[in-house]
Amino acid sequence: MWQLCIGMSTKRYTLILLLLTVGWLCARPSIWYNSQVVSVADEIEWRNRLRVEQRFSSGGTLTVDDDLVWGDAISPERLQKLYHSMRLSWWQRFSHIEARLGYRNTLYSGGEKIALYPVWQPLSVYERDLQHTGYLKADIDFESWRLSGYHLSKVLSITPYEFDLQDFTLVRQAPELQQDHFSGLRATYQLNEDIAISAGANHKSNPGVAGGLFDLTTFSLGAKQNWKPIPLSLDIETSLEWEYRDGKAITAERRNVLVASIRLRHQLSPEVSGYVHYVNRTCTDPSGSELLLLSNYLRGGVKYTLPVEPEGGSYVSGGFVYSPENYSNAVFAEGQSKVVSRIWAGVSTMYRIKENYKYTGKLGWRFPGASECHILYSYSELMQGVPKRSYFGAGWTWYY
Amino acid sequence: MRFRCLLPILMILILMLVAFACRSSSGGEYNVDRSACNGCGECVRVCPHDAIYMDADNKAMIDQSKCQQCGNCVLVCPQSAIH
Question: Taking CB atoms and an 8 Å cutoff, what residues of chain B touch A115?
Fold first, then answer.
């Protein structure tokens, strides 16, 4: 693991360390760290998540997120041995403007070779090496108007491989850069307290790919209503949006898409809350004369907070997802409760009908200030035909 | 007030009509329920076509021009937020 990290880029890790040190010295930030080591049969997986957040008196917030996942083998759940993503984000609110500026650096190492142009050039594959992502997003409120704009650029360095039909081997090619640039603008007008209408445009360009295969332009018109029949208790949100897409990779049927959604949230009592969310996506046939169903998505859930501790950390929750067109029907449940003193236990289950399942049990110890350490056991089947995974893990979360 | 009540009911009726009266499209597409996404990045790690990225709000976004509808992201999402 250490050799792998050193081999990647000492400069990169020095930069991360420097940024964290500067953040630490500037002020007293809030720090959250979670680390988990999991043993799966003869494999070991190590997951680390770090979040450092600092709020400044000027109204800005600086956030550093670090996410490192390392395994000693590639698994169906992770296409590379090392995934390390570090994000630096600045959020600022002025009187009428809210802006977010950020940079993300993602390192992939020891990865599976993946398809470069899966549709029309199956003999080319590539390894992802390092990805730089920069973004800027701003919302401007002016009386009844809201103007939103964003730009996000991804630059991924890749090592391509081409299949040699004479030797039946993959031949390494010179490293390349693959770029994706996303931009968008949206104007929203608040008609009254509840109803807003909006219009927007998005453009994505993928320079360097022959013929602009992955370029995409979308235009959209929408309306949204947020109605609160019982303030702070019952909230109903409905929206309807029409989207027109123009791009070579988009099939003729998916050029015009109508997205309708309704969401209901209800706080039934101080302990019980629930929600229902339904989204319907419909497109048109190429001639535009007939509506075609793309997908339905119905999601619901209920949460009951157990009156065991004042912080509300003990609860049971359950829910379901029904989306038959995309084979993502699932039921899930989760619960955790204080057992005695500082010892707590938790269980969770996710069952995707006809696809996969995962059961997890946790036993932990809480320190003052919400920090904790735990052991866990999980049993899962990712997909049919893939061996079932039974793993033990240990982790800790630290708040500062 | 009456007008406000009518809108959600009308929306539900339209949705039911669209959902049950339409013939299915020959192809599909996957999307992320942004309210359910927790930004864990599992889908980014498993996507074999580099079609998923995290946006400015740290929510997963599917690049529809690159997505080949393999469905791997659906299987690994701990929130069941991809549909």
Answer: 48-49
